[in-house]
Structures are given as structure tokens and as C-alpha cells.
Amino acid sequence: MAQASLKPRGNLLDAVLDAAGLVILGKERELRLALACLSARGHLLIEDLPGVGKTTLAHLLARLLGLQFARIQFTSDLLPADVLGVSIYERGTEGFRFHPGPVFSQLVLADEINRATPKAQSALLEAMEERQVTVDGETRPLPEPFFVIATQNPSYQVGTYPLPESQLDRFLMRIRLGYPASAQEKILLAGEDRRDMVERQGPVLAPGELAHLQELVSQVHTAGPIIDYCHAILQFTRRSERFLHGLSPRAGVGLVRAAKAWALLAGRTYVIPEDIQAVLPSCVVHRLVPGDGVGRLDHDEVAASILAAVPVE
Predict the structure, then answer these.
(1) Assigned architecture for domain 220-313
(2) 299-302 long-range contacts, CB within 8 A, separation 24+
């Protein structure tokens, strides 16, 4: 694929990032990671304190990408049927008719996902992995494209349940927004309500544009040494005593896909080691569990230690 063929798409990606940056101030890297995640057909987990813009970001991405949006507020009394839908008997037809739940949307916001019980959380497992749901013995496909953006409060907050490893492994990326810098926060305090700004946003991508973008990501070239580098990272986590178990093959495939999307955002048709390094913290750290006798894993320190231990050949 010629480099020139990416230029119009690259300009469009810049337009998405520019529009998002007018609402979510001072978070260019986090916005770029979120767009790379969706471009790579991945699901996104945003973990942070309440009030830093997690839900606003999900609404904004749905608007800019022109996606059908649904929000599910995860609470302790949420049931799987509240997510997937339910079959209801109708007297007129003397039969059951399936009423789809909010998961049958192109972009689903699972808000405060770790406030629901593991039973409710598990309702998303099949949807996120196979892009379908099975209810009452019948399998139903989900819309295309299909994304889950989940927000999560820190685990030390009251009323939270830990996400199981099987759930975490289905998120291509986990990002944190953090507090805004002082200059940006003053603009927020003095400026317009961000929710009103989101409501005024129209799609930047036309119908079919996102699918074409995802196809371009799949065509980004990964040379043999890049694959060797990713494989060495996987092998290191599997040998390290710091982790209860290493990264899965699914994690490795996701790391490569995310690096391709990051390269495309930079206007390149090929992956370089810096692309792997840029997305690695968001793609792998949430999948790692500390080994016996190892305390809580620090996100930034774990990523830095992996990159330091695996050289680029």
C-alpha cells in the first residue's frame, strides 16, 4: 500500500482528534490511544476517579465517529437481562418475542462497570469476544461495528467489585485520564459545560469511513523483527516471577493490532519499535497479575521494566 493512500485518511483522523481535543482538554495522548483502540477493533477500559471526564469521552467518541450509542449504568442490582435483553410473552401472537437490550448498539458505554456483580459483568463476555449474544438458546449477531467502552472506579472505593481476568483480557486497552493541567482546568472552570459541547458535536466520519479505517489498520505492515520483538515481550512476562501468569496469545495479537493503529495515526504504513512501546503500557499491564509475594503492580513501573528488559534487536 502506497504511503500516499494514507494521506486523506490521516487528515481525517487528525480532524477527529482536533474535534475531541476541544472538549477533552490537555489529553492528546489519551485521545490518540482511545482512537487507536477503536481503529484496531478493540474495546476500551477507562479507569480513574469520578469526575475526570470518562463518561464524557465515551459520549464524544460516539458522536464524532457517527455511532449508535447506548449507556448501561452498572449497579449492584443489575441483571444480565438488563444488558442483553429478554423474551416476553405476547398474548396477541401467543408466543415470545425478544426485546433487545442496550448491548445491541454500535458503541456501548458500560458505566462504572466494577459496581456490578460478577454475574452482571459476565453478560458482556460473549459480546466482547464474539460480537454476538446467546439468549434463550438463540444466538444473535451484534451491530457492526461494535465497541464497548467501560469506565471503572479505583478498586479501593466503596461498592466496587474486581473485574475478573477473563473480563480484563477482553479490553484491548486500559487508559487513565487523570487530573487536567492547571491551565486546562482553569479553562474548564470558566468555560462552557462539556456536556453541552458534546451534544453539539456532529459526526466527523461519514458512514463507512470507520470500517475503511479499520481495513487500513489491518493492512499496515509488520516486519519479521517487529513480530520477534512482540514475541519476546510475551515470553518475558511468562518467565518473570513478578507475574502469576504471562500474557496470553490474545494479548499479543492485540498489542500488534494496537501498534498498527498507532502507526496509521502517525501516517505510516509500517510498524516501528516505537509504536509497540507507545501502546504497550495501555495494552498489557491490566492483563498482568502479581505473583506470590509481589505487591500491587504499579502501572508505569511495570511497563518501563518490561521495555527495559526486552531489547530491540
Answers:
(1) Orthogonal Bundle (1.10)
(2) 299/176, 302/242
- Determine if the peptide bond prior to 145 is cis (ω within 30°): yes
Distances in Å between the Cα of 290 and the Cα atoms of 48, 179, 201, 287 are 21, 27, 42, 10
Q: Residue written as cell 495494552?
A: 283
Q: Phi first, then psi: what are they for 266, rounded to 5°? A: -85, 0
The residue with cell 500500500 is 1
3-state SS, residue 110 = strand
Under the banding of pLDDT at 50, 70 and 90, the label for residue 158 is low
CA distance 111 to 66: 20
Question: Look-up: residue for cell 519479521?
Answer: 224
**What topology is assigned to 18-199 in CATH?**
Rossmann fold (3.40.50)
Region 284-288: mean pLDDT is 92
Comparing CA positions, the residue from 248, 169, 210 lying closest to residue 36 is 210
Query: What are the structural domain ranges in the chain?
Result: 18-199, 220-313
Q: What are phi and psi of 161, to 5 degrees?
A: -120, 140
pLDDT class of 153 with cuts at 50, 70, 90: confident
Cα(2)–Cα(257) distance, integer angstroms: 19
Q: Decide: 147 and 104 in contact? Cβ < 8 Å.
A: no
Listed residue (275, 310, 276, 303) closest to 288, CA to CA: 303
User: pTM (2 decimals)?
Assistant: 0.90
